[in-house]
């Protein structure tokens, strides 16, 4: 089974032998006091497509199977990916619109006063 908390998939990737990369894996999965054993594994759901080698470094031929790069670190977890609901998406859009209005308001009140008629014509064209 996958060693990531709350993941019940079958693990495919063993923990790396390289101590530095193994430490990064342990930090990424957020399990306190966990020491990986020989059969400890992570499933493929926790890795990006870019974490896999597509071609052999020896022959240059495309792999038939997916091989994890030796430097790959798991980065896809329930706590790193957020699904935005429709309400959440609407809220983000409202916040963005509010911030744009606020910035335009501040810009209008801090700009230098219009003293030339040419500047007034430009401002009218810009605002319409």
Structure description:
Keywords: Cell cycle, Coiled coil, DNA-binding, Metal-binding, Nucleus, Transcription, Transcription regulation, Zinc, Zinc-finger. It comes from Parnassius mnemosyne (clouded apollo). It holds the Pfam family THAP. With 128 residues, this protein is of the alpha+beta class. It has helices spanning 19-29, 86-110, 117-127; strands at 13-14, 41-42, 52-55, 62-68. The longest helix is centred in the C-terminal third of the chain and has 25 residues, at 86-110. It starts with 12 loop residues before the first strand and ends with a helix.
Average pLDDT rating: 81
Tell me the β content. Answer: 5-15%
Helix residue percentage: 25-40%
- Helix-strand pattern: EHEEEHH
For the biggest sheet, the summary is: 2 strands, antiparallel
Number of helices: 3
With strands numbered from the N-terminus, the spatial order across the biggest sheet is: 1-2
Rounded to the nearest angstrom, the distance between the terminal CA atoms is 62 Å
Instruction: Output the structural class.
Output: alpha+beta
- Described by the principal axes of the CA atoms, the overall outline is elongated
Radius of gyration: 26 Å
**Counted beta strands:** 4
- Which ranges are low-confidence, i.e. pLDDT below 50, for 5 or more consecutive residues? 122-128
GO molecular function: sequence-specific DNA binding; zinc ion binding
Subcellular location: Nucleus, Nucleoplasm
Organism: Parnassius mnemosyne
Protein name: THAP-type domain-containing protein
